[in-house]
TrEMBL record:
Keywords: Signal. This is Secreted protein. Residues 1-20 form the signal peptide. It comes from the Bacteria.
């Protein structure tokens, strides 16, 4: 019985860690991603995908696989949101993810990004593709 409880606890811990990391060992933080110029040209500069806050503060993905960051209110009005979902990892180290960004209005931009994640939580502009 004790072994069963330990195995169940380990399984739960492993699955929640995988969820926070997009299931593939990479953590995509929508708060960091909210700082990119999604409406202009997200590939114009590097994109920070991790490192804006501790991993423990990044919420788990929702039922659709998106992790959401709610922007602060702007003059008391809705500030919008940024959502991110890992689509796939391509070998050797290319990641593909979808970002949905809303600045508080009725329109939401959806961008699929392909890039090479750096160890510092940044994808350099040179390898980025946004569609």
């Amino acid at each position: 019985m004790k072994r069963l409880l330990i195995a169940a606890a380990f399984s739960l811990l492993a699955s929640s860690s995988a969820s926070a990391m997009g299931g593939a060992g990479i953590i995509l933080d929508p708060k960091c991603l909210s700082e990119a110029a999604w409406a202009v040209d997200p590939t114009a500069g590097p994109i920070r995908f991790f490192g804006c806050r501790p991993a423990s503060e990044i919420p788990a993905p929702d039922a659709d696989g998106y992790t959401t960051y709610t922007h602060p209110l702007v003059d008391g009005n809705d500030g919008g949101f940024t959502r991110v979902k890992l689509i796939t990892l391509k070998q050797p180290n290319i990641v593909v993810f979808n970002v949905q960004d809303n600045g508080g209005g009725s329109g939401t931009m959806s961008v699929t990004v392909t890039g090479v994640p750096g160890p510092n939580g940044v994808m350099e502009a040179a390898g980025l593709v946004a569609e």
